[in-house]
Amino acid sequence: MPRSDLPPPPPPAHLRAWLDPHAVRADRARYLGELERLSLGTGRLLLLWAVSAVFALGWSFVGMALMAFEEGGLTEQFVGVVFLVLGVGVLVPAGFWFVWGAKRDRRVRQLLSAWAESDRDPANDARLRLPGRSLAWLLSSLVLCALGLWVTFGSASAARPGSETYGEVASVMGLGMILWITGLLGAGKAAAHYRWALRAFRPLRRPPAAPPGAGPAGSAAPGDAAPGGAAAVSPGASVPGQERRSASKERPPLGSG
Asked: Is there a domain that residue 250 lies in?
C-alpha cells in the first residue's frame, strides 16, 4: 500500500482554533481508528507472517544448496549453485519488503502520536486502547516464538553424526530462527503499542473536591492555626502574660530610694 493512502497529519494548533471543534474531534477519532487498524490489525499480522514465509522459502533454497555442496559431485555443485541463486533471489526482495514495512510502521506510529496528542476525547479514547487486539498479537506471537525455539534446539539436540548432514541441521535451525524472530517482533510490537496506548489515552484526573465548609483558597477561618503552628492573632489583641511581663519590667529595683 503506498504511503499516500495513510491519513493526513493533524492540523497545526493555530489552525485548530479556527475550525469546528466537533469536526476536528470526529476526524481525530476516525483517523486514530484507521491508524490503529493499520498498525495492529489482523491484516498487518498476516502480512508479517507472509514476509516470514518468504524468508523461510528463501532459506530453504539456501539449505538445499548447502546439502548439494556437501555431496561433492560436479552435478551436485551445479544444482547447489542453482539453489543458491534462487535463495538469494527470494531473500533479497523479502529484505526490501521488510524494510519498507518497518518504515511504514514508523510513519504510522508518528501519525498515531500526533493525532493522540492533538486533543483529548475520554469518551472515545477508552475504546482506542485495543487491549483485546494487543493480547491476540501477543499470544499468537508467543506461540510462534515457542515453536521456533523448539524447532531450533530440537533439531540441534537430535542431530547425530553420520545420520544428518551439516546442511540439513543448518536448514532446520534457520527455519526455527525465522519463526522465533517473527514471534519476537510481533510480541514486541503488541507490548509496545499497548504501553503507548495506556500512556496516550489515559483518563483525565479530576481535581480533588474541597471539603464542605471550607472557605476560599488562601483564606483562613477565625481561630485557624498559623503556618508555623501557632494560633493566628489579630493585630492589637493582647496576649495573656504580656501585661505581667510589662509590669515586671517597670518595677523599680530593690534598695532604690
From this structure: no
The total number of structural domains in the chain stands at 1
Is 137 a domain residue? yes
Q: Is residue 19 within 8 Å of 115, Cβ to Cβ?
A: no
CB 178 within 8 A of CB 55: yes
Report CA-CA distances (Å) from 118 to 6, 24, 105, 133: 17, 9, 20, 24
* CA angle (90, 76, 89) in 5-degree steps: 10
Task: Tell me if 82 is assigned to some domain.
Answer: yes
Cβ burial of 169 (10 Å; 0-12, 13-18, 19+) is middle
Query: Which residues on neighbouring strands pair with residue 231, listed in sequence order?
Result: 225
Instruction: Write down the pTM of the prediction.
Output: 0.71
CB atoms within 10 A of CB 138: 19
The answer as to whether 24 is a domain residue is yes
- Structural domain that includes position 22: 12-200
Residue 147 amino acid letter: L
Distance CA 257, CA 254 (A): 9
What does pLDDT average to in each consecutive run of 10 residues of the chain (257 residues)?
69 76 83 87 91 94 89 84 93 93 91 85 71 88 93 80 76 92 93 85 59 48 42 45 46 45
